[in-house]
Structures are given as structure tokens and as C-alpha cells.
Amino acid sequence: MTTQHIETLIIGAGQAGLSTGYHLQRRRRSFLIVDGNERIGDNWRQQWDTLRLYTPAKYDGLPGLRFPADRWHFPQKDEVADYLESYALHWDLPVRMSTRIDRLERGADGRYLAAVGADTISCDNVVVATGSFGRTPNVPAFGADLDPSIKQLHSSEYRRPDELQSGRVLVVGASHSGTDIAYEVAETHPTTLVGRDCGQLPFRPESRAKPILMPILVFMARHVITRRAPIGRKAMPHIRFEGGPMLRVHREDLAARAVERIEHRVAGVSDGRPCLDDGTVLDVANVVWCTGFQQIFDWIDLPVFGEGGWPEEMRGVVEAAPGLYFCGLSFQYAFSSMVFPGIGRDADYLARQIVTRSRSAVEVAA
Fold first, then answer.
1. What are the phi and psi torsion angles at 73 (to 5°)?
2. Is 47 helix (H, G, I), strand (E, B) or coil?
3. Domain 3-134+295-365 class, CATH top level
4. Is 1 helix (H, G, I), strand (E, B) or coil?
5. Could you give the CA distance from residue 28 to residue 185 in angstroms, rounded to a whole number?
6. What does the radius of gyration of the chain's CA atoms come to, in whole angstroms?
7. 10 and 92 in contact (C-beta within 8 Å)?
């Protein structure tokens, strides 16, 4: 059993964790990034085959390194994964993969203790950068009561339509991921999409007007729809708990592929089949749960969580636990916080908070 001390531990080697590391490195602070995956970018590689970013490469570079593609190209998920890996190598960031934190708690001396198997990492600061919405699939418990002949997948398990059985596909959840998957699946399977209408972007990201409209959209997402503004405070719970609007796929696209659109929700099971809240029973061969994720931080032994398991923070700073930070959260500061155009700013803000705290600790000790 060994104990290692580091000033700042960053948990998660995705875009948020790497960006935070970059900003700490620029300020000459010591840190270590750990991640449970075998390879940087694996969280992206494990997504469905046709997943692409909703913003063009012009806006997808992390701090200090542009995305290596045509500025109006929309990167595919493997391109994103490879870029993250090259980013860590380019800046020589200290990353330790295949390292999962089993427990995080605070020691008697005020430092944080992160358990990694039998070993311990002691640190003054911790940045949790494990994902915007959590990593635990949010599948209703009654899913277990569906007939075993129905194939069920969460969106995190879905890869391509040919994995599904012949017959009708029920896609549950009509946010952007649900509509994207329903549209793709409908090319080869009869498809039903259920869930409330989350609205849609007034234009498609790839439209000819993108050089004019995309800068406006990014500006709004970064500077207008924020937690400081009424529009942002109103949007935040909808985005965090219900999902965002349709982006690439619109209502007319779904109609063109004959997707049956039902705005009721799946409320339970009747005779082994999914049942809507109006009593309608759906006869389907497959269910794809596009119902998001849960924020499960049961490995963090600190009383800093509120509604829905979300940390009680402001701009990623947890006031109740000095030295504990979160980066990459949905609506950490603005709508853009969960996508590439907003992550660098949030990471920079947290790095400045960490530097200020570290300097204050030195002054007190002196």
C-alpha cells in the first residue's frame, strides 16, 4: 500500500479534465490526471458509429491547439477521440490511465484522499471531470419487466441499426440523441419515437447559412444563456433533467422517414409490452432508451450533492468543500459548458480558483 501526494488531482481525461490540466500547467502548478479507461478518448470511441459533433471544427479545439480539420467540418466521434489523445501528448500532460478512483473523502488534515485499490492519492485540490450528465444509464426499473424477446439497449450501448432485431423499434426520449438515433434506425426498421417535444434548432448545423448563423449560436450559448441571466436559469433545469432541443435532425426529417411520433411518455409495462401514460400498449421488437444518465457520485464521501445527485456548485466551485471542483458539467456556467466551445473557459476559471487557493494556503503557512 502506497500514498502519493499531488497538489491537484483531476479525475477524468476527457475534454474537461485535459483542458483543466492545460491551464494548470500554464500556471506551473503540479497536478495528475487519472482515468479508468485504457486509452484517452475511449468515452468517445464507445459511442454510436455515426455520432458527430454539432459544432464545426472551427469551434472544437481545446485551449492552445486547434482541431486538425477543415474549419466547417463536423468531426466524427473517432476523430474527437484521436484529437483528445494527441492533445495530451502535444502538451505532455501527466495522465495515468486504467486508474479508477474507488473512493474520495477528506482526511483529518483537510486534504482529500482518493483511494485507488489499496493505494491512496493525497491532494490539496480535486477536480471531478467525469462527464456532463453522469455515466450511469437512466433506465426505468420497469424495463426489467418487458418481455425477454424484446431487445433493449441504452443509447450508450447502441452502435448501429444492424444490431437490432427485425421488427418495430421504440426509441424512448426525444432529445437530440433520441431523434438522431430514431432517424438513423428508421432507414431500416419501422420506428416509433416517444417523449415530449424538446424543441429544435431553427437551422441545421450543416446548412449553407452556417457561416452566418453558427457564430451567433455559439455566442448565445457562451455569453447569453448563462446562470447569471434569467433565460439561462430557466433553461438550466430543463437541459439537466429533460435534455436539449433537436439539433441535426428536425421534425420534418423524422416525418420524411415515417417515424411514428408520440408525445406521451412510457409509464410502465402491460403483458410484457411498453405501456404509455394514456394506456396505449406498443407492440415492438426493440427498445432503445435515450433517457440520459444519472449523476451517481456514491464514490465521493462528502455531503455536497443536491437534487438529482447533482453537486451543489457555482461555476464548478463547491463552497461547502473548499478545494473540491467540478468541470464539464451541463450548465456549469452557460449552455456551452457541456460542449467544446465552452469547456476551455470553464477550465480556465477553475484553474484560477485553484491557484488563488494554493497561494492563500502558502501565505497562511508563512
1. -80, 140
2. coil
3. alpha beta
4. coil
5. 49
6. 22
7. no
Q: How far is CA 301 from CA 36, 183, 304, in A?
A: 19, 41, 9
The 3-class SS string of 291-324 reads CCEECCCCCECCCCECHHHCECCECCECCCCCCE
- Which tens digits make up the pLDDT trace of 301-328? 999 999 889 999 999 999 999 999 999 9
Task: Kindly report the CATH number that applies to the domain delimited by 139-289.
Answer: 3.50.50.60
- For the purposes of burial, counting CB atoms within 10 Å of the CB of 224, is it exposed (0-12), middle (13-18) or buried (19 or more)? middle
Query: Using CA atoms in the order 232, 353, 22, 219, what is the torsion angle rounded to 10 degrees?
Result: 20
Kindly report whether the global pTM for this prediction surpasses the value 0.90: yes
Question: How far, in Å, CA of 127 to CA of 16, rounded?
Answer: 10
Q: Return d(Cα 169, Cα 306) in angstroms, integer.
A: 35
Question: Which residue spans of the chain are classified as CATH 3.50.50.60?
Answer: 3-134+295-365, 139-289
Return the DSSP state at 34.
E
